[in-house]
C-alpha cells in the first residue's frame, strides 16, 4: 500500500504502507523501474506530475489509487472523477473516516468522501442535461423496477416518496434499494446516484 509521505498518522493506522509519493515526473519515471507495487496508492494532487499518465500506469499493474483532495481543489472534481479511480479522499479527513475509506477500497468498494457527492451530482446533472445523450444501461444489471427506483434515488426522493410514486410498501422499496446498492457495488444511495449519472444510466429531469 502506498501513501503520501507527510501523512504519518495514516501510516500508523495502516502498517503495511511502504511507498513514498512521487513529487515530479522524474521521480515518477524512477518508480516505473521498481517491479514491486503497492496494493493501494494514495496520492495528493500536485502540479508537477501528469496525473492521467500516472493513474494509467498503476492501473496496468493492478494498483488501487486514491486521491487526497483539498476543498480548494473541488472545482477539479468532474475532471478528476473521469480518471475512474477507486478513492476520492478529503484532505484533512478524520482518522475514523480514513479507516472507513481504506477498508472500503480493500473490500472492492469505491470510496467518495460525502463532502464531494453533492458537488459531483450537481455538476454531472448540469453536464448530462446539456449533452442530452441517450441512456446507456448495461443489459441485465438491474431489473426494470430497479432502474425506475434508481431514477427516483437520483432525483433525491426518499423511500416514502418512492413508495408513494410506485404504490408499493416501504419494506419493498428498502429491499429494492438494498439490491441496487449490492449490484452497483456501492455503500449508499448517494454513491449509487453518482455512479448512475456518471455512466449515463438515468435520465435527469
Give a structural overview.
- The protein has 205 residues and is α/β, with parallel strands linked by helices.
- The protein folds into two domains: 8-115, 3-Layer(aba) Sandwich (Rossmann fold), CATH 3.40.50.2300; 119-198, Arc Repressor Mutant, subunit A, CATH 1.10.10.10.
- 48% of the residues lie in helices and 8% in strands.
- The protein is built from ten helices and four strands.
- The protein has helices at residues 8-13, 25-31, 51-60, 77-81, 95-106, 117-131, 144-154, 159-166, 170-184, 189-198; strands spanning 40-44, 64-69, 87-90, 111-112.
- It has a four-stranded parallel sheet.
- Helix 4 (77-81) links the parallel strand 2 and strand 3 (87-90).
- Helix 7 (144-154) crosses helix 9 (170-184), helix 7 packs across helix 10 (189-198) and helix 8 (159-166) crosses helix 9 (170-184).
- The longest helix has 15 residues, at 117-131.
- It is globular and about 60 Å long.
- The model is unreliable at 1-7 and 9-20 (pLDDT under 50).
How is the topology of this model organized?
Layout: H1 8-13, H2 25-31, E1 40-44, H3 51-60, E2 64-69, H4 77-81, E3 87-90, H5 95-106, E4 111-112, H6 117-131, H7 144-154, H8 159-166, H9 170-184, H10 189-198
Parallel strand pairs: 1-2, 2-3, 3-4
Helix pairs in contact: 6-10, 7-9, 7-10, 8-9
